[in-house]
Amino acid sequence: MKLPTSYPAVALLTLAACTGSSQNVRQDPSIRDPQPSTPDAAVAAATDAAAAGDAAPARAPLPPTAWRPLDGPPMQQLLNLHRASAPSLSRDGRQLVFLSDAPGVLQPFSVAVGTAPVPEAQWRRLATIDDRVHFARYAPGSRAILFGRDFGGDENVQLYRLDPARPTEAPAELTTNRAVKNMFGAFSEDGRTIAYASNERNGADFDIYVRPVDARTPARRLYDAQGHNEAQDFSRDGRQLLVVHERSNFDSDVMLVDVTAGRATNLVEHTGDERYASPRFTRDGRGVFVVSDKGREFMNVAFRPLPTGELTFVTDEQHDVEHFELSGDRNTAAVVFNVDGRSELRLYDVRNPRQLREISRPRLEPGWIWSLDFAQDGRSLAVSLARGSLPDEVYRVDVRTAAVARLTDSDHAGVDTARLVDGTIERVRSFDGTEVPVIVYRPRGLPAGTRAPVIVNVHGGPEAQSALWFSPIMQFLVGHGYIVVEPNVRGSTGFGKRYAHMDDVERREDSVRDLAEVNRWLRTLPDVDPNRIAVMGGSYGGYMTLAAITLYPELWAAACDIVGIANFRTFLQNTAAYRRALREAEYGTLANHGALLDRISPIHRVDRITTPLMVIHGARDPRVPVGEAEQIVAALRARSRTIEYIRFENEGHGVARRENRIRAYGELVRFFDDVMLGRR
Q1: With bands split at pLDDT 50, 70 and 90, how would you rate the model's confidence at 56?
Q2: pLDDT band for position 18 (50/70/90)?
Q3: Of 45, 178, 448, 569, which alpha carbon lies 20 to 30 A from 103's?
Q4: How many angstroms from the chain centroid is the CA of residue 256?
């Protein structure tokens, strides 16, 4: 619920692909044969089990097809459609800093805000860094810019300060321990102090630190508590700080912390699962706004008076609030509602915190808002918006008039974006009557009577969703003639609390049954070739891919697992310490649910896999360690199954670098073409 500060990992995962040749890994500087990074016994056991198991019948070749690829935009062009995201406005709204992947990996740029979009050639690059920058923000009341970067995809973000008026001066390091992950939280109103979370104390728990933006003064640990904590908002006088403490992605608290003494008060004492996010002090400091699902299905905005008082909801919509932010003067709120995978922005006057007054609903193009930021003077709002057929760009919303103007004009490599495709939202009835929302992208210009192959792309999370945002690989596949379907199976967020919990622990494989029902629904459509339906996904979507081809191998013609979980036991043992508790809250603990986790792990049903499979993983992945890929690859090679594998040495959880995506995309499409056209 906190504002994304860069293009999110779930989107980067859809920008990944797999390469290599069947049974072997191509010898390339960034690819090497798998070296088990999980315990040797785990890989050996999986291999032995595969070799000893009864061999599943070999998959028969696909019958001939009349389908031929379409002539959509070339892949090289689509991969060079740049995007602009994660905006931050200067105090007066006249300068914009944002991130762009124009250099091949996300980097910080700035432009002057005017009346027309600024073309990419006129942007000013603020730093030249080899690795991904996660965010860049103006310090209130200052010309300083704070940004965060990691190293080789390890997600151990370090914080830096730069002065754009001194372009030859190296950015000042505010954190220096590269074994530690830091998460920026908030500026004080004068911009002189920051609060951030870090796992420096023990590698597992995220504590809250405060420090001056001046790099010469050390940080002070303000608040420590077991688990995951994130700094959210300083009071206007700088004496108090709001912190969200998460026990799981569905259970959290809001802590009011005294900045001098470190004393903390829980403002939302509760039992059971309740989510609290984006807490913000009111203008007078006598209350707090917070987004919550307390006693309701959907996340909405509530008000809680200080020092004591009851939580009262001030919005009541049957849609989740995805973003909530206050203007610098704290008179206006920007609220973004998630309406079936589309973003709806509303502006409210919040001077009476108990009764918000809607000001306007700015007319942005239909799409997905990744992030937003007010100028400190409260007169303008910057919004990062993507559409299915258009990459992210930054827009300015005039708070007084609701007028919308585009600020950035990224290079689109000559692609006629009118040829790209927006998705439609449809619903599929699953095995128990539950309706599963799916986004369908259909090719333009399919000849009448053609039955097209289909790629079912499963999002990560599972506490996430597919929405109407841009993906170059999806657009290429559609332009190539594939129908692309992105299901929001049970467990996805954005569709209410009940739906998000429908895959918990023992019900994990009900979401895989949803995938099977989507496949069966596709087979009834007149434009779908029922013999040519493939599945792919990243992270948790990678697990879903592996689960789909072990539980329902007869339904899937091809598959690609991207940074996915093959073995829940080794995943929980080897994932970064700071992630384990949050993941166990979703999947179950090894101590209490070990037998269940073993039962649902695809590695223990590997003998059932007959579907040709690609696997991709980054060697520096801190979330799903690369050993998950190596277990499934070793087990399938032991059975002489069709398996292609790539290991990127300079990637983490997904594929972020353009040069890696360029090669990987080509291999992914080649793989699907070979398998789906029956060439194997």
Answers
A1: low
A2: very low
A3: 178
A4: 28
Q: What residue type is 170 in one-letter code? A: A
Closest CA to 655 of 542, 493, 569: 542
Question: Torsion over CA of 418, 422, 424 and 428, rounded to 10 degrees?
Answer: 140
Give the Cα separation of 547 and 543 in Å (integer): 6
pLDDT tens digits, 630-677:
999 999 999 989 899 988 888 888 887 878 888 888 888 889 999 988
Show the domains of the chain with their CATH numbers: 42-77+415-676 (3.40.50.1820), 82-409 (2.130.10.120)
Contacts (Cβ under 8 Å, ≥6 apart) of 96: 87, 88, 89, 90, 110, 111, 112, 113, 382, 394, 407, 408
Residue whose entry in the numeric block shows the structure tokens 């097209």: 452
Residue showing tokens 């700015």: 362
Task: Identify the band that residue 43 occupies on the pLDDT scale cut at 50, 70 and 90.
Answer: very low
Measured distance CA(248)–CA(250) in Å, rounded: 5
Q: What global pTM score does this model have?
A: 0.85
| Residues sharing a CB contact under 8 Å with residue 326, sequence separation 6 or more, in sequence order | 280, 289, 332, 333, 334, 350, 374
Angle CA 244–108–16, to nearest 5: 80
- Whether residue 128 contacts residue 107, with contact meaning beta carbons closer than 8 Å, is answered with yes
357: helix, strand or coil: strand
Q: Which residue has the tokens 């697990």?
A: 543
Dist CA 201 CA 183 (whole Å): 14
676's enclosing H/E stretch is: helix 658-676
Per-residue tokens: 135: 């965010």
Radius of gyration of the chain (CA): 24
Of 119, 120, 115, the closest CA to residue 398 belongs to: 115
Q: Which residue's structure tokens are 């493939």?
A: 534
Residue 425 carries which side chain, given as an amino acid letter? I
* 534-544 pLDDT tens trace: 999 999 999 99
